[in-house]
């Protein structure tokens, strides 16, 4: 089809839509009020509704400010945390499934899950701008009511760190008063991380993964294994021949990057809100959080960058 024919076809199509729209406007919207279609279901006395399916009475009754008198901004604080926890629930669901798919050599499904997680991470990182509207003065007016509660006690956050390979048994005692959370973290501590599963997958695909890495104690944090760097160098320098492995490596790099961006935005929000005060959870605060920026899930995938082209 020539360019002229395409544009005249497009013009005809647009004017058709225009006519259609005008007609609909004339017929169905009067006084800027939309007429409701006859078929719209209104009786939910014996049907599942939006609210019942989503358990909204439960969800929307879970915002209970503790400040007295109630501080206007505590609702923001609660909802920022609750939405984070909801998204973390999905992140955990996807990452745990991705680890299983890797174990089953189903890389495609694992990558699809990781792609979804990356979008959630972006949403979570963006969301910090909402909390940044909370001024230090406003926060100081209800901070005292939070007692020793702290994000440090987020079981789902810790679980995500564990699934990604940043295991730390010393985190567990914090959850002793919550048997369900404690059991979940114990289970994840003992299970191979997504990186362990990926390296085992690579080994099954014929890549030369050292036995010391495959047999590592998975209850500990993954530590930099220099022997892995030549393997990744090979994959990166022959990406076209190892596309699936190469793509998976880059997806993991994105995951770690996104995780660190969330940590950084948290740190900056903390800094602008409480400065150098100690945390309600008992840590030094900003100084403690800064140290997390030195942690890494997939050190060899970053180390390989130094080697590329050499
Ligand atoms: C004004 C808002 C916030 C302040 C001032 C703040 C402050 C802090 C501080 C000082 C810590 C260190 C632990 C402690 O001693 O308490 C911490 C840890 C943590 N916070 Fe927040 N936080 C804020 C918002 C949030 C939000 C919205 C989340 C989302 C769930 C969150 C999640 C976490 C997590 C997961 C940790 C543990 C981090 C780690 O172990 O590296 N925080 N926070
Ligand atoms: N650790 C914070 C308090 C805080 O932010 C917080 C308190 C209760 C539940 C979640 C929280 N979020 C992150 O730490 C502080 O020291 O002000």
From TrEMBL:
It is an enzyme of class 1 (oxidoreductase). It holds the Pfam family Trp_dioxygenase. It catalyses: L-tryptophan + O2 = N-formyl-L-kynurenine. Heme binds at residue 266. GO terms for molecular function: L-tryptophan 2,3-dioxygenase activity. InterPro entries: Trp/Indoleamine_2_3_dOase-like, Trp_2-3-dOase_bac, Trp_2_3_dOase. Pathway: Amino-acid degradation; L-tryptophan degradation via kynurenine pathway; L-kynurenine from L-tryptophan: step 1/2. Its EC number is 1.13.11.11. Belongs to the tryptophan 2,3-dioxygenase family. Homotetramer. This is Tryptophan 2,3-dioxygenase. It comes from Pseudarthrobacter enclensis.
């Amino acid at each position: 089809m020539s360019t002229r024919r395409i544009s005249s076809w497009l013009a005809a199509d647009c004017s058709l839509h225009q006519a259609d729209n005008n007609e609909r406007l004339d017929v169905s919207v009067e006084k800027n009020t939309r007429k409701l279609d006859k078929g719209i279901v209104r009786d939910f006395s014996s049907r599942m509704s939006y609210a019942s399916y989503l358990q909204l009475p439960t969800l929307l009754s879970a915002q209970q400010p503790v400040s007295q008198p109630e501080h206007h901004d505590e609702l923001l604080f609660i909802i920022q945390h609750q939405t984070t926890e909801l998204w973390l629930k999905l992140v955990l669901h996807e990452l745990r499934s991705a680890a299983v798919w890797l174990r089953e050599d189903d890389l495609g499904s694992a990558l699809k899950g990781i792609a979804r997680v990356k979008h959630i991470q972006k949403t979570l990182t963006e969301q910090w701008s909402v909390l940044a509207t909370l001024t230090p003065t406003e926060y100081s007016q209800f901070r005292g009511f939070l007692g020793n509660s702290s994000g440090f006690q987020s079981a789902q956050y810790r679980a995500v760190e564990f699934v990604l390979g940043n295991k730390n048994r010393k985190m567990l005692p914090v959850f002793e008063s919550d048997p369900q959370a404690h059991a979940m973290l114990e289970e994840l501590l003992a299970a191979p991380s997504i990186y362990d599963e990926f390296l085992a997958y690579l080994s099954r695909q014929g890549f030369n993964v050292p036995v010391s890495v495959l047999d590592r104690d998975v209850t500990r944090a993954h530590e930099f294994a220099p022997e892995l760097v030549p393997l990744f160098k090979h994959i990166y320098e022959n990406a076209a021949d190892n596309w699936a492995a190469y793509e998976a490596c880059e997806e993991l790099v994105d995951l770690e990057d996104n995780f660190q961006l969330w940590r950084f935005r948290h740190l900056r929000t903390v800094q602008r809100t409480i400065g150098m005060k100690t945390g309600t959870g008992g840590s030094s605060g900003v100084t403690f959080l800064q140290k997390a920026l030195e942690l890494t899930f997939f050190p060899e995938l970053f180390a390989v960058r130094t080697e590329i082209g050499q």
